[in-house]
Amino acid sequence: MPPKKRVVYLLHNCLPYELFWSDGASISFPFSPKGNRPVRIKPTINSKMYMTTDVNSPRKWEADYEHKSDGWDLGGPTPIFKRLTLRSSRQLIPGRMIVLGAGRGYDAREFARNGFQVTAVDFALQAVQEMHRLSSPEAPVEILQHDIFTLPETLTHSFDYVLEYTCFCAIDPKRRAEYADLVTRLLKPNGIYIDLAFPLDGRRGGPPFAVSAVEILDLFQKRGFKLLSHEVPADSISPRRGAEELFIFQKWID
Question: Within this chain, do residues 46 and 84 fall inside the same structural domain, yes or no?
Answer without folding.
Answer: no
